[in-house]
Amino acid sequence: MSTRSDQAMSTQPSYVIANWKLNPATLKEAVSLAQSIQPATHCVVGVSPSFVHLSAVQAALDPAIALGVQTISAQTAQTGAFTGDVSASQATDLGATFVLIGHSECRQQGETEQILYNKIDHALSVGLSVVYCVGEHKHEYEAAKTQAVIANQLALLESFASKLTANTDANQFAKLLIAYEPIWAIGTGLMPSLHDIEQTHRFIKKVLLGFGICPPILYGGSVNQDNANDLSHSSYIDGVLVGGASLKAQAFNQIIGAFS
Ligand code: PGA
To answer: How far apart are CA 224 and CA 228, in angstroms?
Structure first.
């Protein structure tokens, strides 16, 4: 079995992406956290702060670190009468290069397939890379339904396949990445076994190859400085999406270190 260090010799970088969610509480903390993140070689590092912190975080980040957003409007890629929304083009204008779409915390608030489709469409139309999140509930995992659930969530990507065949942009950031995040592993300290994660990643890859696309596949859910090393050694895991541990500078830098 080839390992990630073998892969590092090849062209694909690994990805370590922070999802700060609705954190931290103050601009000062966001800036200080952003200043402490260290870029790495062979590893693309990305940070997705809250919209209100976007510009200040961008100014504080090392320029080698990619800036992202946690969502975009499903209504339009541009501007319009959509109170409270932020569009893909506004995010791009502020320097964001990627967006998280389909995170379970958003799906649980009623993100339908049509909404997800629109968001992906808007993102790609303005050149924002998409980190598309998929994952199953605990009861689905226990009933061995993980693959069925994920196949369902991946299905809408088929219509974007023709736009994704050359899957990197000018900065070598993939246009599409998948984050496999079992819902029961998010913020809980629980995680599937490495074997189970690898099996699911292999399944995702097989489904997407069927659409003619081969994006990097990240794992997310309770990733921390202690388990990052094991995850980084798997040739089936192209990186991680990190919530809680990305809010602690030292832990996040250690995770980056494991993947670089
Ligand atoms: P976690 O969150 O690392 O805190 O489990 C991951 C995520 O929600 O993307």
So the answer is: 6
Find where tokens 């494991």 sit. Answer: 258
How far apart are the two ends of the chain, measured CA to CA in Å?
19
223: Cα separation from own chain's centroid: 13
Burial of 79 per CB tally in 10 Å (0-12, 13-18, 19+): exposed
- Secondary structure of 199-245 in HEC code, one letter for each residue: HHHHHHHHHHHHCCCCCCEEEECCCCCCCHHHHHCCCCCCEEEECHH
Please say whether the beta carbons of 164 and 176 come within 8 A.
yes
Whether the model clears a pTM of 0.90, i.e. scores above it, the answer is yes
Ligand 1 center to 121 CA (angstroms): 25
pLDDT digits (tens, 9 = 90+) for 135-182: 999 999 999 999 999 999 999 999 999 988 766 665 678 999 999 999
Nearest residue by C-alpha to atom 9 in ligand 1: 243
Q: What is the pLDDT of residue 9?
A: 43
Note the pLDDT of residue 169: 62
From CA 40, how far away is CA 25, in angstroms rounded? 27
Q: Enter the DSSP assignment of 128.
A: -
Q: What's the token pair of residue 82?
A: 């959509």
Sequence-ordered list of residues with C-beta below 8 angstroms from that of 156, at least 6 positions apart, any chain = 113, 116, 117, 120
Of 212, 134, 222, nearest to 178 by C-alpha is 134
* Element (DSSP H or E) covering residue 114: helix 113-125
Pick out the chain residues at pLDDT < 50: 1-9
The verdict on the CB of residue 118 being under 6 Å from ligand 1 is: no
Please report the atom of ligand 1 found closest to the CA of residue 224.
Answer: 3
Regarding the beta carbon of 223 and ligand 1, being less than 6 Å apart is answered: yes
